[in-house]
């Protein structure tokens, strides 16, 4: 089971595993939403995702015809990404997990948009 919350603590959630995969996405939308080099996610079953506190504080933004991004309306923390084309899955943001995610990040998406300012591995 994964648990997480936003920066201000208004929203808390849980996501029952298993994690299908964890990923970093370098698409422009993820980079802009996160204000970082990538959006980092754990892909889990939507049926096991529950907002335990602060559901009224979660706002969704339709970033594309099929993508919905959930965030806290108080502090702005990015909580999840979900696709209307794959309603059985949801991708929770790794940075909001408590304790921190201990699994491997197995996938990278949109690597052609990876920022040049990232250090080379």
UniProtKB/TrEMBL annotation:
Instruction: Spell out the InterPro entries in the cross-references.
Output: CENP-V/GFA (IPR006913), Mss4-like_sf (IPR011057)
Q: What keywords tag this UniProt record?
A: Lyase, Metal-binding, Zinc
Instruction: Please list the residue ranges annotated as the CENP-V/GFA domain.
Output: 2-110
SUPFAM superfamilies, A to Z: Mss4-like
Task: Give this protein's Gene Ontology molecular function annotations.
Answer: carbon-sulfur lyase activity; metal ion binding
Supply the source organism for this entry.
Pseudoduganella aquatica
Q: Which family does it belong to?
A: Belongs to the Gfa family.
User: Record's Pfam families?
Assistant: GFA (PF04828)
This one is known as GFA family protein
